[in-house]
Design goal:
The protein has about 90 residues and is of the alpha+beta class. The protein has a domain of about 60 residues. The protein has 1 helix and 3 strands; from the N terminus they run βββα. It has a 3-stranded antiparallel beta sheet with strand order 1-2-3. β1 and β2 form a beta hairpin.
Length: about 90
C-alpha cells in the first residue's frame, strides 16, 4: 500500500467530499462516484468513478463505520449528522 500524501508539516493532504453516489448496472456491477474539491469555497469540483466488487463495497462500508466509531470525537457528534441522502448529500 502507498503511504498517505502529506503536506510540509506531515499532515494528511485531503480534498473535501462534496457528493457521492452509487449505481448498479444490468450485469450487477457496482459503481461509486465521489465528487470532491480541493478549494475551500468548494467551487472547483472534480469527480472519480470506481468499479467495486461486492466484497470491496462491504469492506469499505465496514472500515468507514469502524473508523468513525473508534474516533476520539465520535461521542461528541450526534448520529443524525451522519444522515445522508442516497446521493451522499446531507439530509435536510
Amino acid at each position: 500500500m502507498i503511504d498517505w500524501n502529506t503536506d510540509g508539516h506531515g499532515n494528511i493532504r485531503a480534498s473535501t467530499v462534496v457528493c457521492w453516489n452509487t449505481a448498479i448496472d444490468e450485469t450487477g456491477e457496482l459503481f461509486l462516484r465521489i465528487e470532491f474539491s480541493a478549494d475551500p469555497d468548494l467551487e472547483n469540483v472534480s469527480a472519480l468513478q470506481f468499479r467495486l466488487t461486492a466484497q470491496q463495497a462491504m469492506q469499505i462500508a465496514e472500515r468507514l463505520t469502524n473508523t468513525y466509531r473508534q474516533s476520539s470525537t465520535a461521542s461528541e457528534r450526534p448520529d443524525q449528522s451522519l444522515l445522508l441522502t442516497s446521493q451522499g448529500r446531507p439530509a435536510p
